[in-house]
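Page 47, continued from p. 46.
Same chain as before, 133 aa.
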Amino acid sequence: MSTSTLAPPAELSKFQFSIMENSQSSLDCQQVSGLMNPHSNKIITEEVIEALEIARDSPEAASHGVIRDLLELALEGIWHRILADDRYVMSRDEFAIFNFFQGRFRNSAVAMAARKRYWDNLSVSPPPSQGGS
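Result:
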């Protein structure tokens, strides 16, 4: 039986990972598996958003080590914020990541409430009114 090594998807060769170059103090982050894991309400980085786009476009990329690790760390941070504050409202980027992993939270009342808070607090501009004379 031959074993073959799967090459990372082509999208990964263009992916620039600069997450370790962040100059955050150790009070703001902890290092997990070589990546920085924010404890507080940090904005999702561009690298995480790009990893999410790659994972959406290519299912095999979602299981690639770096992509998977970035998304898992982001999800972990989001989930911890949700658990720590039952009034926490996810940002648009956080919701996108949380939604990507929605299957993990299928029967969770906490996750359903978090999604409801997101949608309830979504600010959408009303359509422009039709000026009639």
